[in-house]
Design brief:
The structure is a homodimer of 414-residue chains. With 414 residues, chain A is α/β, with parallel strands linked by helices. Chain A is built from 15 helices and 15 strands.
Chain lengths: 414, 414
Amino acid sequence: MKIILLVNDGMSDQPCKDLGGKTPLEEAKSPNLDALARLGMCGIMDPIKPGVPPGSDTAHLAIFGYDPFHYYSGRGPFEVLGCGGSLKLQPGDIAFRANFATVNEDFIVLDRRAGRNIPEAKELVKLVDGYIPPSAPDVNVYLEHTVEHRLALLLRGPGLSPRISDVDLGQSKVKLNECKALEDTKTAVQTAQMVNEFVRNSYDVLSKSPLNKKRRIAGFPPANVILLRGAGMLSKMQSFGERYNLKASFIAGGALYKGIARALGMQEIPVPEATGKFNTNTLAKGRAVVANLKENDFIFCHVKATDSMAHDHDPQKKIEMIEKIDKMVGYILKHVSLDEVVIALTADHTTACSTGKHTADPPPIAITSSEVINDDVVRFTEKECAKGRLGRILGVDVMPILLDIVGKTKKFGA
Amino acid sequence: MKIILLVNDGMSDQPCKDLGGKTPLEEAKSPNLDALARLGMCGIMDPIKPGVPPGSDTAHLAIFGYDPFHYYSGRGPFEVLGCGGSLKLQPGDIAFRANFATVNEDFIVLDRRAGRNIPEAKELVKLVDGYIPPSAPDVNVYLEHTVEHRLALLLRGPGLSPRISDVDLGQSKVKLNECKALEDTKTAVQTAQMVNEFVRNSYDVLSKSPLNKKRRIAGFPPANVILLRGAGMLSKMQSFGERYNLKASFIAGGALYKGIARALGMQEIPVPEATGKFNTNTLAKGRAVVANLKENDFIFCHVKATDSMAHDHDPQKKIEMIEKIDKMVGYILKHVSLDEVVIALTADHTTACSTGKHTADPPPIAITSSEVINDDVVRFTEKECAKGRLGRILGVDVMPILLDIVGKTKKFGA
């Protein structure tokens, strides 16, 4: 038996006023998600633990069975690994998640995503890549564009520490945050200084760029600064395949998710139409899952845009994304046998359209195969799945439950 | 958004024979408790962990998010803090919960509460307060009356240890228990000896008092001895307000609950009609909650008598108390907006009318605001709440879940 793990980022939600108090999952027409619920066993899952709003990175580590309290060291390394580009993470590197953003001359953040759509991104990156901070001539800053406003950034050199604060506070209309050392060490203080030099330089260079002048004329916010967050060094982790004795592959558009899967040694199944954005081709992902099942024991398939739509306070587009995901699931259900496959469907966390933020409310989960005892749940929603026989489980419970269904667990005791 | 936490002591129960196998919550007419269930998300909560019958003190610590396995040191310190009288707890003091009780000349406990209603309590206390144990002339015993048969007691001086056994075993018709050292240290042995001297002296003095002669003539059991339990020293705890970044206040009649709230630095909202007894004015409490909501982020409101009625094996009076609590909840629901407030309603533990004891059966909990996804539960009972989407949570999960709803949690990860 094989495992298909479908994680739809931030898919669950809170009651939306625009939807008369319903959630996007409740409003969406999703016969195939509902079929998974009907045929399987359902529950709700605290990715980290009750009351803790998960990041996408910590939630995925937990769902893959890697306790994030032990393994998590900041988002940056996963983002850099996710680029899949020329940036190769080396031991000792400090990696960051970075954004193009728009600030005014007083460094007030007007839009922390610079409008999100930045076709000039690769050209703009060239202007600041390779920067050497004046206070640390041995250190190099490497930069790479991933998707939309998103960048991966890497500091390489001596005297570096990841124990520094974020420049990007996750909100607009506030003054750009100065990077500070989070501990009283020389390396943390120096690293914070380098970061501040880099950010200041990015503004000096980008705000003068003709590309941004053109953006302004066209009515788009200029991508005139780079904001950093999630500084981290990569923890040493046993590969997913070795740990569970599975041949594991992944399909994902977003850099962070590619990065986590790569950090765990999963093989990528390339799907060019998987963009990590609203325009992603979920049906192409579904086809790739089915086509590669024979050669794999485990396929992780991630869809990002449900989360992005909620961050953008857009429940209607979130519903559309859910309906696109439903078609993907329909394709998979039509082309696999539940005698040979177990499908787990969940979200890594709840993202509320009302606030645009992650919440700790546990997302629904369905685990479906002909091996499992199903329950009376017939809809894949926040409310209905909570009535299922999986009950309320933790993120780190997911892999053991799946492994047991496919007979890959070891008895404890005799 | 603000938080109202309503804890009704020992409100949940087991099936009562007198009620045809129903529980007091099932038999009570409680449309407002049911409204909280209907509008919110419900579950059951193990205050400590499954199968562990909680004390009121450990349960409250857990519900406030302070792991009692780490912070709990005996009930005494909270009882003394709860007096709010002249007894000021100092570092190194050993504090006790104490009871007036009735023993015969063979020290058989006839009534470990001396009839519960003791109007002469303050006069009787004067007879034994300030006692100096003959074996430890540097140690003073300080005593204060709280509510009904209840007292707070404090040992102050050198050579003291809280590692001693209870004199009050929580049952009548047994011989008064001798206090023993729980560890083989000089201080524990000495402290146990002092306690035994104090208890013996309390009998010698109180049994001779004309006040007790009058009680006997009037048909009341004499309050002729003082029983001690819950020896403890106060742990160092970060204040609730600092820990959660909330302005927090409390409303409670019982000394123990005032003591716990004070130990955590909550401000008292004085409600003179909150007596901690059956005659308490729950509506006055409800009015105080509403009137003080503007100036607070968090209000903890405690009602004691549901527990007392169960300890007294009186399901009918427990039902009456639940119906009084229902009116309090009705007042609150009428005067707050669930867009601005989250209300959590629960009990700190189950107290069974049949046995008069705390049990480990997890009490129901409802968490209600317009932010939460409700479920199909429409009655606030032990049985119905167990079907809700909160599932089965722990006491220490309550605060994180509430903080997440009011947006006071920090995302773990990115």
